[in-house]
Specification:
elongated; mainly beta; 8-stranded antiparallel barrel; 7% helix; Porin; 1 helix
Length: 213
Amino acid sequence: MKKSFFPQIWACIVCVLILSASVVRSQDFGFYSQPKIVAGGSAALFRISLDRFTSVYKNRIGPSYGGFAGLNVYGSYYALVKYRTFQQDGKETGVDENGIALNRARWQETWYTAGVRVHPPIVRRVQSYYGFGFVFYDIKESRDVSIYNSSEGGDGGGTGFYLELGVEYFPFKNLAAFFEMEIGSGGQSGKTGFEAFSVGGFRFALGLSVWLF
C-alpha cells in the first residue's frame, strides 16, 4: 500500500506556527507597499461532486496537494495560477458491467486555475482574502475500468469556475500559514458542469505562503 504523507504535512504546518509564536512580538510587521509576488503550497481534503464516482471508486473524499503563484497587478489584486491533484483507487471488491474487477481502477485528476485574488494590504497578522477565476481539469483513468466511455480511452477533462475564501496568519513578515476553502465546478469530457455532474468539488486546505518584494 502506498504510504501517504498527508498527515505529516499538516503536522509540519502546525509545528511552524507553534515554534514561531514565541518570536512574533519582537518582529517588525507590515509592508510599506503591497508585496509583488506570492507563492505557496498546501495539503488538503478534497470531495469530488460527481455522484456516480463511488460506483467505481472507494470514496469521494481524499487527499489533495497543490501549489500556487501570484503577481500583484494593481492595488489589492493579484493575478493567480494554481495547480492541484487528487487521486483515488477503485473499490476493493465488486466488478463493473463487463465483469472486470473494480480494484483495477485508478482515478488521477489534475487541475489548473487562472484567476484573481483580492488581498487587502498586509497590516495585521490575521488577514482574509477571496478569489475567483477559471479552472481546467485533466483526468486519467485505467482503460479497462473507467467512469468515462471506453471509446474515450479512459481519459477526460473539463472546464469550469472556482471560488476561494481564505484566512491567514503571519508569524513572520514574509511568511503566512493559511486555511482555505475552494469550490470548483467542472464538466466531464470537455463540458462544463455543476453539482452531481461535476468533476470539481470542495477543497479544504492548510498551507504556507511566502511574500516577496
